[in-house]
Automatic annotation (TrEMBL):
This is SDR family oxidoreductase. Transmembrane segments: none annotated. Coiled coil: none annotated. PANTHER family: 3-OXO-DELTA(4,5)-STEROID 5-BETA-REDUCTASE (PTHR32487:SF0). Residues 65-355 form the PRISE-like Rossmann-fold domain.
Length: 355
């Protein structure tokens, strides 16, 4: 049987990059979402609601995917609701696919909250996990929807006999419009606003993040790791951290990002200056910038997610990850983090998303 991919969340940063990677390798690829992305050449859209079993049964009636990649989640007001909704999304999908007996491998993308705890936990200044973060670290004694999603994959694998892989990226750097967690584009929009208004490009986060070591995950890197794990026997049934492979300090990178946009950089000044507050009144300003420059997206909320950028940059601890588990099994992809940002900025400008 030839490989056929079903990418769940193909409209997001990870899913769209994964779809392009799979298509480049010649895989027939279907992209499932409530509102599928039709802009990726060759991607076959599948419209379905993961919370609606009947919707899934109808949408997937004629599909027999061999490889399923789950890259989406739904944000809710509480962690209890995150657990209920996001575990059901995984459970419903795999329950509908199970009777087809076509699935050979399921990959689930979660993230570093596996080690840090839910949003509310890791910003509260609790006990910091040891760094670099390793896959062998035990689960935290906290409610966490990532754990619930993993358990649904494990249960379905035991029932249906497929192999699995879990992928835990750090902050994703890549292009997507309408994404809820988009630090790279948020900073690009913020810098563009600073350029247009003469405001300083001011560090919004904590002292720990400003001075500490960090890493990020280029969307192209996790796309390659997902394909590698799905097709490499030695990679089966394992959890993998996935980052670019270098480390950096924001205190060194911030000025370089500012230089790219030609704005003045201001570093940590002893206080946190959340971007959510800094950009709270910028929606109409962005609409004016978009009109003046002929940009493709005038809705600031579809490009910037300052709340999530604040969570990342405001952490009271440094965060970096260990890649040994996938490296020793043969995954050797490396990406310069500085180039991740600059490549993204250039793509956003080329696609008329920033001036």
């Amino acid at each position: 049987m030839s490989n056929t991919a079903l990418v769940v969340g193909a409209s997001g940063i990870i899913g769209s990059n994964l779809a392009q990677e799979l298509l480049a390798h010649g895989w027939p690829t279907y992209g499932l979402a409530r509102r599928p992305d039709t802009s990726i050449a060759g991607l076959q859209p599948v419209a379905a609601d993961l919370m609606d079993v009947a919707s899934l049964e109808t949408a997937l009636a004629d599909l027999r995917p061999t490889h399923v990649f789950i890259t989406s989640w739904m944000r809710n007001d509480t962690e209890a609701e995150n657990i209920r909704v996001n575990s059901a999304m995984v459970r419903n999908l795999l329950a509908v696919l199970g009777p087809k007996h076509s699935v050979q491998h399921v990959a689930l993308v979660t993230g570093l909250k596996h080690y840090l705890g839910p949003f509310e936990a890791y910003v509260s200044g609790g006990v910091a996990p040891p760094t670099p973060l390793r896959e062998s670290q035990p689960r935290l004694a906290l409610d966490n929807f990532y754990y619930a999603q993993e358990d649904e994959v494990y249960a379905a694998a035991a029932r249906d006999g497929f192999t699995w892989s879990i992928h835990r990226p750090h902050t994703i750097i890549g292009k997507a419009v309408g994404n809820l967690m988009n630090l790279g584009t948020t900073l690009a929009v913020y810098a563009s606003i600073c350029k247009a208004t003469g405001r300083p490009f001011r560090w919004p986060g904590s002292k720990a993040q400003w001075k500490g070591l960090s890493d990020v995950t280029d969307a192209r890197v996790i796309a390659k790791q997902l394909v590698w794990a799905a097709t490499t026997e030695a990679a089966r049934n394992e959890a993998y951290n996935v980052v670019n492979g270098d480390v950096f300090r924001w205190s060194q990178l911030w000025g370089r990002l500012a230089e790219w946009f030609g704005v003045g950089a201001v570093g940590f000044d002893g206080s946190i200056h959340p971007l959510e507050a800094e950009m709270a009144g910028d929606a109409e300003l962005w609409r004016e910038i978009a009109t003046k420059n002929g940009l493709a997206e005038a809705d600031l909320s579809r490009l910037a997610s300052p709340w999530h950028t604040d969570l990342d940059l405001g952490r009271p601890i440094e965060v970096m990850t260990d890649m040994a588990n996938s490296r020793k099994r043969g995954f050797t992809v490396f990406q310069s983090t500085e180039d991740s940002f600059f490549d993204l900025f250039a793509k956003l400008r080329e696609d008329r998303l920033i001036p």
